[in-house]
Amino acid sequence: MKYLILKHYRGGPAPAVDWAPMDEWTPEEVDAHMQYMSDFAQRLVETGEFVDSQALAAEGAFVRFDGEGRPPVTDGPFAETKDLIAGWMIVDVESWDRAVELAGELSAAPGAGGEPIHEWLEVRPFLTGVPGSPE
Amino acid sequence: MNSALLRELVPAVIGVLGRRGADFASAEDAVQEALIKALETWPDDPPHDPKGWLVAVAWRKFLDATRAEASRRGREVAVDAEPPAEPGAAADDTLRLYFLCAHPDLAPASAVALTLRAVGGLTTRQIAEAYLVPEATMAQRISRAKRRIAGRPLDRPGDLATVLRVLYLVFNEGYGGDSPDHTDLAAEAIRLTRQLAALTDEPEVAGLLALMLLHHARRVSRTGPGGRLVPLAEQDRSRWDTGLIAEGVAILQAALARDRLGDYQAQAAIAALHADAPSAAETDWVQIVEWYDELLRLTESPVVRLNRAVAVGEADGAHAGLAALAEVDPGVPRHAAASAYLHERAGDLERAADLYAEASRAATSVPERDHLTREAARVRQRTGR
């Protein structure tokens, strides 16, 4: 079963730990964080559970149709109040529990002082079941 | 059977089918099918005459496709017998393919895909994997590109500048990635540029080849553990490939001696000066600034102006660099990063840290973003906060 693990720049539940922006960490702490993320992905490649991982720039806009012959309406760059996705990892795992376990591990990435940042991650199942199958 | 040898035969075989009367789009499809068949069967059953085998199989595929098409339309098939090949025909065919596949009417992404397939002899799947798009998408991109250039005569030389731009795009796409599972696009770009340099007598082709070789020589030292980006000044120069550097420099010197300077030659000259420095501190920045001045005379590019400002900062001090940067449009990509670098050297650490953080938010790749974040953290720490 495939699951999307979504990382947000902002939005979602209130942060469990109020961590400082990355540029206020020490370079070693930044390195440790990056290394943790890349080791995590590498481990999932080795277990055969990794599918894809992508990061998004903070810029962008909401766009919608505004009627024939009219240019689309845009709303953006995103206001401070809006939910903002930073990136995702897609995993293909045995169960929901495994997906939750992995997201929990990813959220334990170290921050300032080497402490886990406890970042909220959103876990969403893909609708990839076989149509009409009894499960 | 070495697949590189097989790939080298592809443009010549397309050329043979063309001279037998096949149109480019159908000939290219037929050769692609023959290529896929060769990749399947040659490892167990290598042919004595690889080119003859490819021509025979591709021609059969072409006739099958043409007959199927003709019977759909209720028409007879008439194909010419092969005219005798003139000496040098294969080389001319290959050269024409470079120009056709990089036709100025094509969007760069389409020209890249078509060049890799028809000139490079890669399969659609390999190209799709290299560019991380579904195979069906890449197949469509290639057929649409071929429809767009249908009927363009193959006998007129095209625009060399667009050919070089396409090859450089392929190289740059491969520059960042180093995945062993995927086609090595940087090496492929070098192979295709080397082949083009052998077919033409243009100093700019040699300049591009030299530029690629000089960049490629530093490849292994550019990334550290976990894919982390290592800037030029911090690279372990003992890991640079001295063979590639020597080759790049020799090709560049021969090109410069022709006295027809172009921007690839000027960029290669800058790369050669970096390659030549035993340490970052020994870099000849004064000469590098002179080459940037040359480059600006050739192309009034804001990106060149930005890079020149950084070089001025090294040659004449950070304040001179910042003065040069003040004349560059702040909207140019990597402006904040260059400004951060110069501000740190000028001793304005607070501003430098803020600029690095700003630059990381504007980064266009994950390794670049991570590198700039780390720089922001490093400079912030130096401020003692």
Tags for this entry?
heterodimer; A: about 140 residues; alpha+beta; Alpha-Beta Plaits; four-stranded antiparallel sheet; two-stranded antiparallel sheet; 2 helices; 6 strands; about 25% strand; flat; B: about 375 residues; mainly alpha; about 0% strand; RNA_pol_sigma_r2 (chain B); DNA binding (chain B); sigma factor (chain B); sigma factor activity (chain B); RNA_pol_sigma_r3/r4-like (chain B)
Summarize the structure.
The complex is a heterodimer of chains A (135) and B (385). Chain A has 135 residues and is α+β, with helices and mostly antiparallel strands.
Oligomer: heterodimer
Catalogue the unreliable spans of chain A. Answer: none
Helix-strand category of chain A: alpha+beta
Order of helices and strands of chain B: HHHHHHHHHHHHHHHHHH
Class by helix and strand content of chain B? mainly alpha
Family (chain B): Belongs to the sigma-70 factor family. ECF subfamily.
Protein name (chain B): RNA polymerase ECF family sigma subunit
GO biological process, one term (chain B): DNA-templated transcription initiation
Biased composition (Basic and acidic residues) (chain B): 367-378
Walk me through what this model shows:
The complex is a heterodimer of chains A (135) and B (385). Chain A is of the alpha+beta class and 135 residues long. In chain A, 24% of the residues lie in helices and 26% in strands. The longest helix of chain A has 21 residues. The two termini of chain A are 12 Å apart. Among the domains of chain B are: 62 residues; 98 residues, no CATH class. By secondary structure, chain B is mainly α. In chain B, 41% of the residues are buried. Classes of the chains: A alpha+beta (135), B mainly alpha (385). At the A-B interface, α1 of A face α17 and α18 of B. Chain B: Pfam families: DUF6596, Sigma70_r2, Sigma70_r4_2. Chain B: This is RNA polymerase ECF family sigma subunit.
